Each structure stands twice: as C-alpha cells, then as structure tokens.
Write a sequence for this structure.
C-alpha cells in the first residue's frame, strides 16, 4: 500500500512547518494590533428576569 510510505509526505510536512514557524509566523506576529486591550473596568448590567406567560 503506497499510502503507508511516509517518505515523501513527512518531508513535505516538515518543510511546511519549518517554513511557517521560522519565516511566516514572525512576520505575522510583528504587526501591531490596532485595538490594544484597554484597562477599563468592566461594567455589569442589571438584568430583569423574563416573565414567562405559562408560569
């Protein structure tokens, strides 16, 4: 069964992951986030329970 031969596919997968982790990922992570997280305290809203007509 030729599907069980990992020789060509393992090499392709290894080269793909090395390319992603060494070349593409640092370029993507170098971008500055346009919406940095803010230090505002989160406000909780008061909710009222729903009045179900069948109760």
């Amino acid at each position: 069964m030729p599907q069980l031969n990992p020789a060509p596919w393992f090499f392709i997968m290894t080269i793909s992951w090395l390319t992603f982790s060494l070349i593409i990922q640092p370029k993507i992570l170098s971008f500055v986030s346009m919406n940095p997280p803010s230090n505002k305290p989160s406000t909780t809203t008061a909710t009222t329970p729903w009045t179900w007509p069948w109760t």
